[in-house]
Design a protein that fits this description.
With about 500 residues, the protein is mainly α. It contains 21 helices and no strands. The N and C termini lie far apart (about 65 Å).
Amino acid sequence: MKLAILLIYFAVLIGIGLYCRKHTTDVDGFVLGGRSVGPWLTAFAYGTSYFSAVVFVGYAGQFGWKYGLAATWAGIGNAIIGSLMAWAVLGRRTRIMSQHLDSATMPQFFGRRFNSRALTIGASAIIFIFLIPYTASLYNGLSRLFGMAFDIDYSVCIILMAVLTAIYVIAGGYMATAINDFIQGIIMLVGITTVIAAVLMNKGGFMAALDGLARVSDPKVSDTPGIFASFFGPDPLNLLFVIILTSLGTWGLPQMVQKFYAIKDETAIQKGTVISTLFALVVAGGCYFLGGFGRLFSDQIDIKANGFDSIIPTMLSDLGPGLIAMIVILVLSASMSTLSSLVIASSSTLTIDFLKDNFIKNMSEAKQVLYIRILIVVFIAISAILALVQYTSSVNFIAQLMGISWGALAGSFLAPFMYSLYSKWVTKASCWACFIFGSGLMIANILWRSEFPQILQSPINSGSIAMLAGFIIVPVVSLFTSKPDKALVEDAFACYDKKHEVSQVTSLKD
């Protein structure tokens, strides 16, 4: 039964990929769906790219264990800051200026906004370095769940997921990814709510589970009674850093911002904002809420031996076979949707911003699409190999690099990208300063972590500081460096001044 459900699911994904081939005749169609993607598809593509097995299995278990029910604040932050505010602040302006500059990727945006090929190459190098290992982490959350549900070796699971994702992304490009993300998003919504209800019922219902959690104590963490069922939990400061990294970080991630490039129109932005926010509230809020009850299963969990990734699978192990099959598909959906988004961002960036014009002159539209497809295979293969190496040899440095990728990417791009959409005074030097500081800080955190102050030894805390520091670095460096070319800036911002007639229901005349 479980295997039959999986086979049907895989057949649907591949079928949609083949159906969407008509949208992949040029770069704009393959990478952005022709900039004509509606609100539901865009919102679900944004949400499913946001939340993967890393969140459901890794973060939910780890932070739920550390902070108790207060970990739910991370999910609320993901909905309000990472979705609602991201759409409101970045959505419309990103769509308008990216089309005006004819940019399909974030590095291409920086290059054309500041007329700098060096910025384009620098940004694409950062994306290549930090997105590739991030893709490998997406497989990690599947290992324990597949072992629990099927008698299948994890290496087979990695290869299967890689091959299936490659088929539908290569065939149908962004449009196939967006449609499949919509299906995967529905699975995630139904799956999360069903799993939460089932786990709580196994503990006697919500009130009984809450009462049990309030009785849990851990002197190593806090002497306060009921701390794991409290409003802010045992460590509000470090929880705040988690909220900042996982919520504000989406504003600077290329695979997330690229969703705004493809959205169809104003109505799609308005509807997409609401849909995306509600999706994040259910999925992210539900994941962290579920993880908050992890300590009720402490008699079955050995953190020292099996790590935080064992918490969620242990919580789910007593559920029926039908529910476990749903959970496996839920986590598989979350991982495949994020993987497809990452490989499109990586391959399009390397083709358009690195190979084109720099190494291969006069690259036609057809050749660009061909190279993007080839690089999708390469990136998926590399990520699968990294995941297999980590699984078979217990190499931990890969997993550590995944943890800092959000901080490096968002620390490098968030502030210069946002300021560039709103302000004319941003300089090319300020972008370089952010690129160097954000990625440099996170690389230093890997190499010399023990030398960092105690609070910054955590990659999560360092990543949050990298992002927040950018809001200071960009205006300060811009103040003391050469001003941008006035004609270039005025041309970039001219796109906001175009006049459009609207119906009276949208705007009343004076």
